[in-house]
Amino acid sequence: MKKVLCALALAGISQISVAQESPSTENTIGKWDFGLRAATISFDKDTALAQGIDESAYAIGVNADYSKSNWLTSVGLDIIVYDDNDEFRQVVVGEGILNDGDVSSESSSANGMLVSVATGYQWTFGQEQDVSFALQGGFSHMFLSERAIDLCSNCYSEDIDVDGGFYAQATLMKDTGSFAIGLYVQQYLKGDGINNSLGVKLGFSF
Q1: Cross-strand bridge partners of residue 75
Q2: Which helix (H) or strand (E) holds 59?
Q3: What is the pLDDT of residues 50-75, one digit of tens each?
Q4: Which residues share a beta bridge with 76?
Q5: Residues 37-47: what's their mean pLDDT?
Q6: Is 85 a domain residue?
Q7: N or C: which end of the chain has fewer CB within 10 A?
């Protein structure tokens, strides 16, 4: 993952010499971009073993980027789908109009919800200024992470203790005119939870 981070950094830095600042009003008043993203996340080996999950998981999320004068601030919300090794089953009794009194055996699922914020510098380059490269520092917090039965209000559940923390992020994007698409990589600065993530982004300007 560190090799990927370095590769993205080199790809962006190699173009900085030809980067030009756009004179548009977006540099004065700023611009918002919103989008979707998907990633693979890797965890610290000891943490994964202790929490009964695999060392990698999938994440899907939404993000918002605010850029002004080449400074980029990003916020994100990601749902993490763990590959669970400690899945359990429980007999549940349905409640409600459609399944009142129905008895079934249900399996647990393991998911987390991660919020993040990052800020840093963004370079734009190319003849149309349609390629961007950003280096940011950020912080994430896992505010919901558990193994539980979906849609069950009084079933057994377990916390999955995985931490976020401080990370460095590199992002390379291409603006097609209708939308922007690119890659991002995050490298966490300590290894007691998430180690790193690699993902793709799809962004739209409004």
Answers
A1: 64, 117
A2: strand 53-68
A3: 999 999 999 999 999 999 989 999 99
A4: 63, 116
A5: 96
A6: yes
A7: C
Predicted TM-score (pTM) of this structure: 0.81
What is the rounded distance in angstroms from the CA atom of residue 156 to the CA atom of residue 87?
Answer: 12
DSSP-derived letter for residue 178 is S
How many angstroms separate the Cα of 122 from the Cα of each of 13, 134, 151, 171, 172? 11, 4, 42, 9, 10
* Residue positions counted in the chain: 206
Residue-wise pLDDT for 69-113, tens only, equals 899 999 999 999 999 999 999 998 877 666 666 788 899 999 999
Strands 180-188 and 109-125: unpaired
Retrieve residue 102's tokens. 């129905």
Residue written as token pair 């981070």: 5
Q: Read off the tokens for 107.
A: 């399996």
Let me know if residue 90 belongs to a domain.
yes
* CA–centroid distance for 8 within its chain: 17
Residue 80 sits in a domain whose CATH number is: 2.40.160.20
Mean of the per-residue pLDDT values for the chain? 86
Q: Which position has the token pair 């995985």?
A: 162
DSSP 17: G
Q: Is residue 21 part of a domain?
A: no
Count of domains forming the chain = 1
Using CA atoms, how far residue 161 sits from 43, 197, 202, in Å, is 11, 18, 30
Residue 187 inside a domain? The answer is yes
